[in-house]
Write a structure and sequence with these properties.
The strands form 4 sheets. This protein has a 5-stranded mixed sheet, covered by helices on one side. The chain has helices at about 5-20, 20-60, 80-135, 150-200, 205-240, 250-260, 260-270, 285-300, 360-370, and strands at about 70-75, 75-80, 245-250, 270-275, 280-285, 310-315, 320-325, 345, 350, 375-380, 385-390. A hairpin with a 5-residue loop joins β10 (about 375-380) and β11 (about 385-390). It has 3 domains: about 5-140, no CATH class; about 170-240, Signal transduction histidine kinase, dimerisation/phosphotransfer (DHp) domain (Helix Hairpins); about 245-390, Heat Shock Protein 90 (2-Layer Sandwich). With about 400 residues, the chain is α+β, with helices and mostly antiparallel strands.
Amino acid sequence: MTRGQEPLAAAERLSNTSAAGTPVRRGLRLRLTLLSTALLALIGALLLALSYLLVGRVIAALPQFPPGTQVQVGDEVMDASQAAAQIAAQGRQTVLLVGLIAFPLQVLAGALLSWVLIGRTLRPLATLTRATRALSESSLDQRIHLAGPRDEVAQLADTFDDMLARLQAAFEAERRFVANASHELRTPLAVIRTEVDVTLADSSSDVEDLRRMGLIVLEATDRADRLLTSLLVLARTQARGVSAQQPVDLRELVGPALRAVDSERAEKDIEVSVDGGPAVVQGDPALLDRLVGNLVENAVRHNVNGGWVRIRTGASGAAGVLEVASSGALIDPETVTELFEPFRQGRRARTAHGGSGLGLSIVRAVVAAHGGSVGAAPIQDGGLRVRVSLPTG
């Protein structure tokens, strides 16, 4: 299953689960009613048994006549103890008779009342059921906004609204990503197709023309390869997270990253300075190497001739810090957050500089996978400062 299908699959599973919302709700209502009725019947039976036992005890606790005392009950004269026993038996019989009449009426009334009250309590679930059943990719902007007391059902509705918001954001990000990736992949393919068509259509093409075409095609395929590799890294990082955990010193990764851009740095005559101390963090060495490499590559690639790059590492509390600042073009502060979106540099395409346009997107994904934070701020005279903070343990 692709990354773009996961949110839709989750929505479909939720929709399929609630498509039978009415039977589920009725079943839950019936089960809760039966449970409450059974509890009420048990309590009623216990009270009836307790009343039956208490009648005899109450009569036995009354003042007693001296032994041998004769009392007249109606037209019959009998011993006082025998009269007390008859009174107790008659009291128990009366309690039992009244209880046997009142008990089923109490159970029936309790069942009806439970059915009504539970139905009113579960009524908001019907709203959730209808909203879930109507859920689709085109209706993710709908929200329930359940009114009333903020009880468990309202919390469930709020959670459902939050889930819809996350699904909507995921779909929108996926659509933007796919559109941008399709556009970027179309560019090198169009270059290859054009060069091949032009060269083959020219009957006078010689070896030099074929060599020139081959170099252009090779450059275009390299660009497409870099783009696909970056897309794969980004997708794997977002899907799998960190696969290895071991101590990594970010400072030790700076040197190899700088050597990888030596030729471009020398071509632009960029001054580089590195200071600070060790920045040991826990994480995946391969992903952290890509993180440092992308930051250094971006700082050089999007720099100006005769510019500068300053790299600082160190520890701050329970986090390792890497900060990369570089000169460059002026950046609107309002568009800084767009730098971490795929294929964007503010309001213009990042690929205008020859990169894949995914450098900072991969940085953000790697930082998120390690539970860290990343931020960027424009430099007043032009350029960008990116600060990464990763946990040390």
